[in-house]
Write a structure and sequence with these properties.
6-stranded mixed sheet; two-stranded antiparallel sheet; 32% helix
Amino acid sequence: MNPYLEHPALWPDVHNSLIAAIRDALAPALAPRYYVALERRMYLLGPDDLVLVGRADLAVLPHAEPQQLSALPLAEAGVIEVEVLMEDEVGENYLEVHETGAGKLVTILELLSPANKLHAKGRETYEQKRRDVFRSRTNLVEVDLLRAGEPMPVSKHIRSDYRIVIMRGSRRPRGQMYAFALRQPIPSFPLPLLPGDVEPLVDLNTILHALYDRARFDLRLDYTQPPVPPLHEADAAWANELINNAPKA
């Protein structure tokens, strides 16, 4: 995993682009038995929340304190330029795998974001959806490529930088968790389908790295600065060595 991709200002683009790339990789392998639909969830967030999830450009702050404005005599104040604090909708994509014909929802694939890991209301909304899925027979795949925030709860507390959790509807409450560190390749994982069907492997490491090259995320990253959130000392030294030894453009 490239920790620079986790920056809140870039992650919304990475998130939605990666979900679409996973769909494009899966659709040919699943057809014609299944089709993959790209769905979208919306959050209504206030200015402080927008900064938290990487939309700082929409969090407009006033230029002057109210006390300073009210202290001016009316004749001297004249026309004052002000800006309005507004809420804004922030959307994120996820995948649904449906059985062709009947349209039955078989699997949901979620890529976690700051909106559902760090924002209290967003997390509450996501965890409620998670519980609703658990009450059904739908499979759930939860991909967490963000070090910030508390991981989604499972029975065992395992410390890791990143994780992929697979919960098959036919085996709950048991599931599988792929826990991995920054310096490890992102593991491939089987996409759960209906019992008896062959489950394709999702090579997320290859999909993400190909997306990085195709989308030219390198043009938006400043490798002279530490990533956000910051790395532990040993990981920071490892990352700096990779950056220093990388071929110059």
